Amino acid sequence: MEAVKRPLVSVLMPVYNTAEFLAESLGSILTQDYTQLEVIIVDDGSTDQSMDIVQSFHDPRIVIIKNVENMGLAASLNRAIVISKGFFLARMDADDIAHPSRISRQVNFMLNNPDVDVLGSSMQYFGESRFLNHFPETHDACKSYLMLNVCFGHPLVMFRRHVFDSSENFYNPHLQQYSEEYDLWCRLVDKYRFHNLQEVLLYYRTYSPALKSDSENKRIKNSSRIRKNYLTSCLGNINEDDWNTHCMAALLTGLNFTPDIQKIDLWFRRVLDWNIQTRSFNQEILKEQLAERFFEVCYTYTGIRRWTVISFYKSYWSTKFKPSFIVTLKFLTKQLLKP
Question: CA dihedral defined by 320, 322, 327, 333, rounded to 10 degrees?
């Protein structure tokens, strides 16, 4: 890539007591095959050796700013955005590992697709979980998927500078690190174009549930409020019973009572009907996403297991989503053979 085509990328990395993993995480950015970087480290009041580790790199591309007190992820990111100089802004967490070509692949795509404003990719979990997380590829798919969950892996998104020309597009500091990204995607999706590369560009560190129980509860609470606001803004007001049904499907929790499966089936059909009226989402993409989620609901169900297999294959949704052979085999084994 010629120098004139190598715009500066500002990597935004808040740091709070991540000394155990920071050298590996920061090193994965500083050794990227794309070198036109400034790496903005926001020290959010660390009390361990995190800043000693950062300074040990002796890399002139590193910029350190310090919060006078612990402000949380959202507020720290806002500070980094304000001082950043890059044409593109890239997120990075202080305990994850970037693919060696992460930045170059994202920059190349953004340069070749000037209509895309926010870009993510797939990410591979490691540590406590080995899950491979693929996110919706196109803008329309991202927009409808926000009804259920986030459409990006937050630690690996790249933004165009102009997304943050207005402070209205900054992170909500009151959410801190509990769903600040979900709120941001819901606010940006009607103003900017989203896209996800379908390749793994980040390795996402996961921890034991016991280590994150309190933060997870806060995240679920905030996410539910954001999800409800987004859903009603797109499709109109919904009653409490329908909302509880939607939450079960979105969170894949509490699925142990046979009527719940039937309620989710009927609710998803009504969502399709409402969308015909509101035209908020691409109808065909919405069908595919709801069908896949209905399969996941049936897969997760812990009630009368044999019944849920029949429930899926006799449903409308089985014609819209065809799981792979391996996933189908796991589904049948889980629901038919296990007690």
Answer: 80
Cβ distance 197 to 106 under 8 Å? yes
Domain that holds residue 127: 3-211
3-state DSSP assignment of residue 10: strand
Residue 147's CATH number: 3.90.550.10
Residue (of 176, 203, 182) closest to 44 by Cα position: 176
pLDDT in tens, 167-219: 999 999 998 767 999 999 999 999 999 999 999 999 999 988 766 666 778 88
Flag whether 222 is in a domain: no
Q: Is 55 helix (H, G, I), strand (E, B) or coil?
A: helix
How many domains does the chain fold into? 2
* 3-class SS of residue 239: coil
DSSP symbols for 129-186:
---EE----SHHHHHHHTTTS-SS-GGG-EEEGGGGSSGGGS--GGGTTSSHHHHHHH
122's tokens? 């797939």
Same domain assignment for residues 113 and 172: yes
Residue 218 lies in a domain: no
Running DSSP on this structure, what letter comes out for residue 63?
E
